[in-house]
Every structure is written in C-alpha cells, then in structure tokens.
Amino acid sequence: MAITSPDPKDSEIVQKLTILDNGFENVACMESEITLIDGNRGQIQYRGHPIQDLYRDNDYEDVLYLLMWGKLPTPAEKLDVRRKFAAAMVPTKAVVDTIAAFPRNSDTYPMCLAGLCAFMAGDKVISNNRHTHKPSFHNNLDQADAAIIRTIAYYATTLALIYCHKRKLTFTNPDPNGSLIGNLLLMMGKTNKETGVGPDPEIESCLEKLWICYADHEMTNSTAGILHAGSTLTDPSSCAIAALVCGFGPLHGGAIDLAYEALGKIKHPSHVPAYIEMVKSKKARLFGYGHRIYRTRDPRLSLIEDLIEKNREKCDANPLLRVAFAIDKHANEDEYFVSRKLKANADLLGCFLYSALGFETDMITAIITLSRIPGGLAHWRETLDKPIKIWRPRQIYTGDRTDDADTPRKQSLSSNEGPLKEKHGVQVREIGSGRNNSKVPLKVKAVLWAKSCFS
C-alpha cells in the first residue's frame, strides 16, 4: 500500500501497487493458527499436532473440536457437542419435502444445495442475519458456535435424506448421544449388521480415522470461498454453500469422482502403461496425481494406505484398487512424473475406502465434503474477532479505453426534458418530452421519492 507510482496519463494522480498473480499461487490472504502444511517436507499439523499423532491417538470428533476451538476436548465437552449436533439433525417436513421433490436419479450436488437451503429457511437466526444492521456473528462467538453446529448438522442430515430418497430407504432419526459419523450412518440406514441396532461399527471406526485425513487442508479453494463469502458478514450456512459450490468443481473435490471414473475406464492393471503414455502425451488426464502444495508424497496417503490394509478383504473386492496401485508403481518409476515431482494425493485412494465400505460413487464427494466443512468453518470462526474487511481483489484492465478529453459530449438518454408541471407542490420537468436541457435538482428528486414511498 505504501508503494505508489504516478498515473501515466496524469502525474497528479497517484496509483497504488497492484500485484497480478493468477490463481493466487504466491498471495497470502489470511494469518491463521489452524493448519500448517509444509509441502516440501510432506507435513500436515492441526494446531501444532502432527496429523500422524492425531490419527494414532484420536478420532474425528477430537480433531473437529481441536480445529474449531483450539484444544482437544474433555469427555464432557465431546458429549456436549455430540448432543448439540444430534438435536439439530431432526429435519422439518419442509426439508424432507424439498429432498423428496427431486427425481430419485438426480445428481447429488444440487440436492445438497437445496436441502441446506431448506434448513436455512427455517432457522430464524440465520434468516434474520440478512435483515439486521448489527453483525449477528462478528464478536458474538456464542451465537456463531451455535450456528456452526447447526450448519454441520443440517448438512449431515441433508446427505442422509438424499441417500435414503435415492434408494427408497426409511430415514432414521439420530441417537441423542451418538457421534456425528455414527448418526450420519444411522440416519442413512447403515446399521449394525448383526444386531440391526445403532450404526455399523466397522464403517464408523474406519471413517473416524479417514475423516482426520480430510478434516482441513489449510487455504484450499473451498476454504477461501468460505472466507470470501464470510467477509460480507453472512451466516455460516451460506458460507458452507459457498464451500460446496467450490468443492464439487472437477479441479477440487469433484476430482475424486473423476479419478474413480478414469480408473474405471482403465479397467485392468495391464492397461496402465498405455494410459500413462497417454497422460504424458497430454491425451488423457490423471486425476489424483500432483498437487500445487506438495513436492513430495502427500502425508495423508500413508494413513489411507494403513486403513486399506485394515480393510484389506473389503478393498480386494474392488478390482480398481489394483489399478490404482499399478498407477502408483509406474508413476514412482517414470522419469516424467519423478522429474516433475508429481506424487499421488489422498484423492487417488480415499475413494476406494468409501466403495469398500459400501458407499456408491454418487455420494462419495458429498460425504467427503461433510468431513471438510467443519475445518473450513473453523477458519471462518477465526475471523470473527478480527477487524471487519470485505474481500475485494483488484484486477488489471486490458480492454480499450477512451480518455475523458476525447469523449464527445452525448445527450443523456435520461435527460430531463419537457415542460414544467406541479407535483406535490413542487414544480418538476417531465422526462422525455420537450427540448429543454435543465435538470431536476437532486434534492427535489429526493423529496419526490420520499413522498411517493412514505406518504
């Protein structure tokens, strides 16, 4: 802001420095204490805790609490948040009807947006936020925390309603003391196969660890979307919608679906060498490889591989997993990938665990976004005690420009022409009639407007 230069057309006008950085590769927009990613060393830390330690010692709910509130929870704090999630997970008839209005074969993405919007419409605090001059959440962390919890619960319930609607299953209300993941499974009908009571323990145990890998990833595109929307002082549910819009894009979370579809086209490990050659000649794209941040192996990948080994029998039932490992082997040996430091990321193998656990591909991206939204909202919460500043990036204009001195005087299309007439005791000139160019004074316009609106 202190670096300036004179305008090339007028030395009396001073221009401030503008930095052009397409894709914001080298521009930091926030200071944060939440997540550290060291792409050169392949490290991720949440609030100073290495992700490997959290994966070993904690579950997803612990990590969610850590990201959001800055410390690992006590058992009492954990139970309190669980109960608040569960209380907000009971859908209203309006929400159920919104999801039911979609054809069962609809794409999941617009159903997610519609369901979350239906929940928002019934939330008085969130709805009223747009009708108050005083910020509802800024410097009001108690209200913000309650709205964050409701937003996460709304989205989890939306996913369960979508899943049940598409498959003609009966929606089950949540367990008041159940975990976020456990209640998601319960509402979706993924219950204990032996007892039929409660969520499937094997799936719940796996997701409690897998979601740690996806809990937050620093300033991602979707997190930036949350903060961009949040800078307008909007509510956390609207911020979550901004994240979903970004997250389902094919270069972001949508890459999970595309990676799975590409592996489906390869079909067999024997076809991998030919496909690798197509990628190198830019005739095909390999989703799940390469990352702007990492110049070494994605540290989450070893954790996902550990989960695959623990669920080996289920994963082996998926023939595409062998294709994925064949790609990893070729890419780690091929000079094209090695020289460019293109390594596998978590998107490549994470989707196979979902398939192994019985989730169909139409729900995988949506479920993964649920694991990420709390982390994004933690970044939003972090801004609430900082000075308010709306995000408004600059641009470099490259189009044609006409200088004011060269602009011919043109008659305004809204020039005030016509004979004087009396309205509300004030003489005014009707627009569009006559040739007199005198204008109605601005104060007179204001008086007329006020009388027409409020008299």
From TrEMBL:
Pfam families: Citrate_synt. The active site is at H291, D347. It comes from the Eukaryota. GO terms for molecular function: acyltransferase activity, acyl groups converted into alkyl on transfer. One of its GO terms (cellular component) is mitochondrial matrix. The keyword Transferase applies. Keywords: Transferase. PROSITE patterns: CITRATE_SYNTHASE. Residues 400-409 have a biased composition (Basic and acidic residues). GO terms for biological process: carbohydrate metabolic process; tricarboxylic acid cycle. Gene3D superfamilies: Citrate Synthase, domain 1, Cytochrome P450-Terp, domain 2. Residues 399-434 are annotated as: Disordered. Belongs to the citrate synthase family. This is Citrate synthase.
